[in-house]
Amino acid sequence: xxxxxxxxxxxxxxxxxxxxxxxxxxxxxxxxxxxxxxxxxxxxxxxxxxxxxxxxxxxxxxxxxxxxxxxxxxxxxxxxxxxxxxxxxxxxxxxxxxxxxxxxxxxxxxxxxxxxxxxxxxxxxxxxxxxxxxxxxxxxxxxxxxxxxxxxxxxxxxxxxxxxxxxxxxxxxxxxxxxxxxxxxxxxxxxxxxxxxxxxxxxxxxxxxxxxxxxxxxxxxxxxxxxxxxxxxxxxxxxxxxxxxxxxxxxxxxxxxxxxxxxxxxxxxxxxx
Amino acid sequence: xxxxxxxxxxxxxxxxxxxxxxxxxxxxxxxxxxxxxxxxxxxxxxxxxxxxxxxxxxxxxxxxxxxxxxxxxxxxxxxxxxxxxxxxxxxxxxxxxxxxxxxxxxxxxxxxxxxxxxxxxxxxxxxxxxxxxxxxxxxxxxxxxxxxxxxxxxxxxxxxxxxxxxxxxxxxxxxxxxxxxxxxxxxxxxxxxxxxxxxxxxxxxxxxxxxxxxxxxxxxxxxxxxxxxxxxxxxxxxxxxxxxxxxxxxxxxxxxxxxxxxxxxxxxxxxxxxxxxxxxxxxxxxxxxxxxxxxxxxxxxxxxxxxxxxxxxxxxxxxxxxxxxxxxxxxxxxxxxxxxxxxxxxxxxxxxxxxxxxxxxxxxxxxxxxxxxxxxxxxxxxxxxxxxxxxxxxxxxxxxxxxxxxxxxxxxxxxxxxxxxxxxxxxxxxxxxxxxxxxxxxxxxxxxxxxxxxxxxxxxx
Lengths: 273, 461
Ligand SMILES: Cc1cc2nc3c(=O)[nH]c(=O)nc-3n(C[C@H](O)[C@H](O)[C@H](O)COP(=O)(O)OP(=O)(O)OC[C@H]3O[C@@H](n4cnc5c(N)ncnc54)[C@H](O)[C@@H]3O)c2cc1C
Ligand SMILES: Cc1cc2nc3c(=O)[nH]c(=O)nc-3n(C[C@H](O)[C@H](O)[C@H](O)COP(=O)(O)OP(=O)(O)OC[C@H]3O[C@@H](n4cnc5c(N)ncnc54)[C@H](O)[C@@H]3O)c2cc1C
Ligand code: SF4
Ligand code: SF4
Ligand code: FES
Hints:
Chain B: One of its GO terms (molecular function) is iron-sulfur cluster binding. Chain B: It holds the Pfam family Fer4_20. Chain A is an alpha/beta fold. In chain A, about 30% of the residues lie in helices and about 30% in strands. In chain A, the strands form three sheets. Chain A has a seven-stranded antiparallel β-sheet with strand order 6-1-2-5-4-3-7. A seven-stranded mixed β-sheet of chain A has the order 11-10-9-8-12-13-16, sandwiched between helices. A two-stranded antiparallel ribbon of chain A has the order 14-15. In chain A, a hairpin with a 4-residue loop joins strand 4 (about 45-55) and strand 5. In chain A, helix 5 packs parallel to helix 6 (about 190-200). Chain B has 17 helices and 16 strands. Chain B folds into three domains: about 15-130, Fumarate Reductase Iron-sulfur Protein, Chain B, domain 2; about 140-235 and about 395-460, FAD/NAD(P)-binding domain; about 240-390, FAD/NAD(P)-binding domain (3-Layer(bba) Sandwich), CATH 3.50.50.60. Chain B is of the alpha/beta class. The chains are: A alpha/beta, B alpha/beta. The interface between A and B is large, with 43 and 39 residues.
């Protein structure tokens, strides 16, 4: 059992938890994730390590309530425990000492983006970030990014904050204004990452994305998380989750992620009923 | 007077029509009378050919003699001297190629049902004898074990019995390895595996779940933490794919994923258990080993109407246990032998069928088996919505990638000295599937036992 030390509500669907996990806190690096089970019969769900504290032996997760297991998780409070948390899983991000990097975080994707950007800024890299969300409430971690970034741009669908429109509009504008980036790191919904890659490919800007296929074990045992990158099968849990966005078969990823659409719905009805 | 019947006392089983609708154990086990009757078929051979076929040297005639005499508890005590997990081995060992394969009664008629008797003794003991496993006084020396499969559990148990402080690090949330996530409930009840693991815990072994060695902690760090030796029993968990068109379509599973969803995550109980699984009306399972049989029989139980085993050689070459092939056929699994998949067809991203080609046996290959070669023009389409790939597993590369000085074969297996299971890295030992590639439970246990002995000798030098 693993104790939840604190919990924060970031917006109506996104929450943050700090969980005691000594093995994970000791060795984890930006880009890595955990797999947790809320309770005894729980499903194994992967979540990125959004932050960690080696001394207090804790990791921070930021999750969006999208279905059964994240809803179950959201019902836990500080002081409660969760059944299992395993990690750190996946490869740490390969962060290079570039001159200037642009981070793009769509919705809850800002959470997995944060540790990478933080590390880059500690390495002395100049970073700009574009954060996107449906409305201003869905833009998370803005303050934390402002502490470490040179520029933070915001895009919301309804224009309630920052640019009205998509993060990709801002990206195109920045490039056209002559901003030069050595690399783009994009994390968010697959459609967003795909759209970002379409633009950066055109401008020849290397782009790293973080894939989130359906996973079970997270150790390379089940093959369920396989993705096609550069025409080859990769297991996102051990070969990733970060990949060269220009080589990813996004169509396939999106299709595989929808594999259990009907079942997820059934499950959620069970929880609400 | 020995019982000279040419056939084994039949095993009571769940009827094949009923059992395909549940996940309960198929073979129900002998009654006391049946066990005695079968035990009386043993001729108590002086030269014990059967024992030579058992990788852990279970004293077979000795324990069978006790069963024949009605001394069931004694029989169990004789077995566990050599085999810590008899309830499991009695159920899953490929007896026909091991102990029973060497039995003299098998020359004319069926061999003695050694596995069934072993299972009987173990089940009897569990049911009727109060467990008196006790923690042994500690000798202050610490050993770390990677992986809680049969190899790791056995190694840990043996060392704990000798007084070592042993910690097993297991990546998943449940210990047991393939016994828990791979082999289905209807063949190996999970409660039984849990009880065996509980006994190992009672010996004082600590099991830390959710620790993936290589990521959560490295082998070198284990030594820094004060462990004096490490045993690696991480198995062969990396599934192979065929490299054919359509393998990433929705509806294509590696057997590991399919079985893990069903066994470990209890997807068969969806939505009571939140992990889902997709099974079409028509399912093709590629492969001919135990893994393929388990996947096929699981698919049937999950509601598939037509389940095909697609295997490129003939039935004689199937590596699965005879009993499993027999049970699979009884349950209506259809064998497509001498058939090889060519590609998987899909529509809108979902599997709709599998194109196969018929094979014929050509010249013998390096392994002495006649090599199957495709028959030109014999392609046909098997209409299926689910494809399960069960063509083998290799060791996970994580440990070798994160451990300096650990020599491995090109296919990924860790290289060890056969006598001691020592690797190229000092005080690091390995055994089970991670050394041999996918093999058997009993071989993994044998390796764990051998390594425990060698570790004991090393740490007392
Ligand atoms: C490496 C990785 C890192 C992730 N990091 C984060 C994060 O930091 N914050 C966050 O909010 N989400 C993250 N996710 C996504 C998160 O795992 C899913 O949202 C969660 O599993 C949904 O579970 P559910 O039962 O609540 O929803 P469900 O109703 O079961 O599913 C909703 C959707 O989530 C996806 N999903 C379902 N089960 C899984 C699974 N076992 N593995 C992966 N995806 C699944 C599917 O696309 C599905 O359509 C990450 C996923 C991966 C693979
Ligand atoms: C479906 C199926 C059916 C089978 N049927 C039979 C049968 O009928 N009879 C038979 O004799 N054999 C059978 N086998 C084979 C048998 O199960 C294996 O040979 C045996 O389990 C190998 O034991 P092991 O201890 O080496 O590895 P495993 O049982 O694979 O256990 C390895 C353990 O190590 C853990 N692990 C892996 N990497 C790490 C890491 N880095 N850190 C921490 N932990 C780690 C894994 O999670 C796992 O729990 C079957 C196998 C399968 C898959
Ligand atoms: S352990 Fe396996 S091989 Fe040995 S006697 Fe028992 S069933 Fe036979
Ligand atoms: S070979 Fe067969 S008959 Fe002879 S001792 Fe062994 S089990 Fe008994
Ligand atoms: S999640 Fe099972 S192999 Fe990646």
